[in-house]
Amino acid sequence: MTRAKHRLPRVHRRGGYLASVGATAATSVAVSGLGAAGGLILARYLGPSGRGTYAVIASYMLAAATIGECGLTYAVCYTVARNRADARDTVRTGMAMLLGLGFLVGAVGIAAAPLVVDDHAMVSAFRLAFAAQPLVFGAAAWVFALQATRLGSWNVTRALQPIGYSAAVVALALADLLTVERAVLCLIGSIGLQAVAAAVLCRQALPGRGRLRRSVGRELARYGGASMISSVSYLLNTTLDLLLLAVIVQPAQVGHYAVAVSMATLPQPVCAAFGNVAMPRLAAGRATVAHGPAAAADRRVVLAAVGASLVIGVLCIGVLSVVAPLVVHVVLGPAYAPSLELFWLLAPGAAVLGCNRATDDVLRGLGRTLAVARCEWTGTVLTVVLLATLVPTIGVAGAAIASSAAYLVTFVLLLQVALRAVGVTARSVPARLHRVTRRGRKDWITVPSESGRGNA
């Protein structure tokens, strides 16, 4: 057996792309539903002000993790998928690097807490969230290694965190004990549960301890650095509005905006599933052959991921735009009526946001992380300009308009890059999709074997 065969993770040797996407999307729907349910409970029991405060803490925690991990999570997934033989060393080295960054980010967040929130109780909750950063960072090495090796196990670990979080929040709400600080504790506890499960499942997928290797660390740092540039820009595109509003407008207005954003991002998990599966699959394909049947299969995967995520995003936002008034008034009450107008302003850009995320992952799997960064940073610059222009004049509505416009511009840029990456012109896409549909499902979801023949 050749070395290339050893490098192919199980998910790339068996099963089809759409089958893997289906399982991942189903998990994402469940995770999204649990997250939405948890958000609704927080909104109902904490009120607009408490919900806004929690949104600020969670947003800063996410921002710190995305920036502070320096793209190493994507690097672990990409490197494990490309080189299964050294996967254990990759996980061990990546975890050591992530833990060091986690302690650094946690210390900075604890020190900066009074600059972000001014209430004493909220400062304590903010510091508690950042004290858990080493746990968040360390667990990510196991989680992202599973994405490259066992998608089923990866989906299990993804589901455990929101299940644990939602169960804890519901229990506190029923006991009338839910506060912002306790909600943060629930979040940390659920991340700990996820870390334990990921460690056990990763040990099964990749037996052995592995060892720290400088060469692996340098490889992770190179890919991670380029990924970080694109990740930071995507994060700014999606959270800069909320981070800015947190220091400009009242917490209640932030709460309304947070609810609108939560509704607008509901399709994202399903759309992102196409990119989640495509990234390690494309990375593994790059490690075997660069031309021939594998290249053709990669082209089909890219077109399927981008096209399907776009269609699903547009359809879901269309349905949500119709049912949103009923959901908001029945579930949250009249106090959240302003969230409706904000959601409708976000809707055009939200329809393509999930496709943007899937396309980002597709390009990362093809090794084009810097191209992702260029597109996302263009959107970021546009976001900053529009926020600076619109928010001072029309408030939170301006933030919604700015974000929606930036998502749309970024989508156009990413689509152009993705099509060029696989040698497809925009004009030929409709004809290609028509041929794919006529050939049937089996023809384009199977993966070519190392000898060039398709495997079911």
Ordered list of secondary-structure elements with their pairings:
Blueprint: H1 3-7, H2 10-13, H3 17-68, H4 72-82, H5 87-116, H6 120-131, H7 133-149, H8 151-174, H9 180-205, H10 214-245, H11 251-264, H12 268-286, H13 293-332, H14 338-365, H15 369-394, H16 396-421, H17 429-439, H18 441-445, E1 447-448, E2 454-455
Antiparallel strand pairs: 1-2
Helix pairs in contact: 3-5, 3-6, 3-8, 3-10, 3-11, 3-12, 4-5, 4-7, 4-10, 4-12, 5-6, 5-7, 5-10, 6-9, 7-8, 7-9, 8-9, 10-15, 10-16, 11-14, 12-13, 12-14, 13-14, 14-16, 15-16
Distance between the termini: 20 Å
**Number of contiguous helices:** 18
Overall residue-averaged pLDDT value: 81
Anisotropy-based shape: globular
Helix content: over 70%
Order of neighbouring strands in the sheet with most strands: 1-2
Query: Structural class of the helix and strand makeup?
Result: mainly alpha
What's the total number of strands? 2
| pLDDT < 50 runs, ≥5 residues | 1-15, 289-294, 440-456
- Give the domain tally: 1
Series of secondary-structure elements, N-terminal to C-terminal: HHHHHHHHHHHHHHHHHHEE
- As a whole number of angstroms, the C-alpha radius of gyration is 22 Å
Oligomer: single chain
* Residue fraction in strands: under 5%
Largest sheet, if any?
2 strands, antiparallel
